């Protein structure tokens, strides 16, 4: 039975204090692949992304540029929205935290936490990183020889002292640990889970959840001198978009709790400690899973504006092609680990897996069909053991990729698909259909039929990862529109003999580096 239940997946919402970089593009591409996979697998999907527009970092950046924070947010949020189009992301909504709907939900969750007795007024004195928008214990910071104190992510911290509302995070320590224990899948991958558990075990202090020294944020209900700490409002975006706290509940309320929040490893603490504690306090259901991907490194080095190695996703896509870039990141980087990229690495993957792999298999087999089978999908004669094994390998991909994708192991799912491409190459070479043409045309037809059906299944399965190219492949094998989802995989959607085919056009050209 296919699972048709709602599936809610989110990216982090990005700070629009600058243009999107390749790390943002990576997270969006990966989350898009997971959303598309679930949709094709029959789930009713809600995929959310957006921008996190409040906070001190936004206000400081705007000031430095001589514009208002709202102008900065408008300008760069538009860039993030353009990136969803550029990358062919299938998000169902794009949330901006400056929208009225979000202000309403943030106030609602604040009131729920306050009504539960978890918010009190006091004064905060401690270290704060504006770049991370995070409070740190002194023990987590270090004073370096340059005279500057840095937080655990390597960003400078400053001393903050102000009147502030606090959230009673300390009282949630045991409940959080119990939740991690009882829900071993709540945090992935395992390294992050261990990191979070040891952080919580080391002791939680109450969290400052409002600021008074600037005003770019959502006002605290009944105390307009305070704006909410940006992470309180940022995390709440996931609820806002579902309308779960609206009165009456919004149409998308059925999507809460989220199936998975996809984020980078640097913000696991906010998602796996603060967010579940806020929700527990508000009496709301917790997300089922938080999965943190790794960081993208440029030739092994951290990207930074000062090193000058920050790659603009627009340039990368213009240079290599969108599906090529999508494929590279999804296949090359073990999802959950850091990954390194370089132009050479991208070129190698494109040529080995896409041009020489799936592209070549499709063009060789389909052009033989067009030439030798009257331009139609041939008849499938009696199957040999090799044919049965070949079809079984392709038919088995749904079950194995489903397991991988449910565990966010995107690279594994793709590796399994490409392994079947290699197997089909060996099958095709071993069966020598070109030699059978004279000696046994019925057998030739069967080999071509089997190969074409493997191409069909590969194309269906590649849709989440390289959507536009997979569509071209499906057109080449003349797969009807209603036979392109995963229900058509395996025997259910086998190619229909006699269906006319056009001469195949190349789907994945070889990458040739431009002359220096
Ligand atoms: O953290 N490689 O926003 P952000 C991979 N607004 N991923 C990267 C990356 C890199 N080099 N650099 C950043 C925020 N990311 C908050 C989130 S969610 C309620 C609020 C990832 O613009 C990063 O880990 O700094 C995060 O998941 C996302 O990009 C947005 O980062």
From TrEMBL:
Self-association and partners: Monomer.
Per the Swiss-Prot or TrEMBL annotation, the motif 'HIGH' region is positioned at: 14-24
Could you give a single Gene Ontology term from the biological process aspect? methionyl-tRNA aminoacylation
Under InterPro entries, the record lists: aa-tRNA-synth_I_CS, Anticodon_Met, Met-tRNA_synth, Met-tRNA_synth_2, Methionyl/Leucyl_tRNA_Synth, MetRS_core, Rossmann-like_a/b/a_fold, tRNAsynth_Ia_anticodon-bd
Q: Please give the catalytic activity noted in the UniProt record.
A: tRNA(Met) + L-methionine + ATP = L-methionyl-tRNA(Met) + AMP + diphosphate
**Where does the record place the Methionyl/Leucyl tRNA synthetase domain?**
8-365
Per the record, the domain of life is Bacteria
Q: What is this protein called?
A: Methionine--tRNA ligase
Q: Which keywords label this protein?
A: Aminoacyl-tRNA synthetase, ATP-binding, Cytoplasm, Ligase, Nucleotide-binding, Protein biosynthesis
Domain Methionyl-tRNA synthetase anticodon-binding, which positions? 377-508
Q: What class of enzyme is it?
A: ligase
* Family label: Belongs to the class-I aminoacyl-tRNA synthetase family. MetG type 2B subfamily.
Entry function: Is required not only for elongation of protein synthesis but also for the initiation of all mRNA translation through initiator tRNA(fMet) aminoacylation.
Q: Which locations, inside or outside the cell, does it occupy?
A: Cytoplasm
Motif 'KMSKS' region is found at: 302-306
Broad class of the protein's primary localization: cytoplasm
**What are the GO cellular component annotations?**
cytoplasm
Q: Which PANTHER family match?
A: METHIONINE--TRNA LIGASE, MITOCHONDRIAL, METHIONYL-TRNA SYNTHETASE
Enzyme Commission code = 6.1.1.10
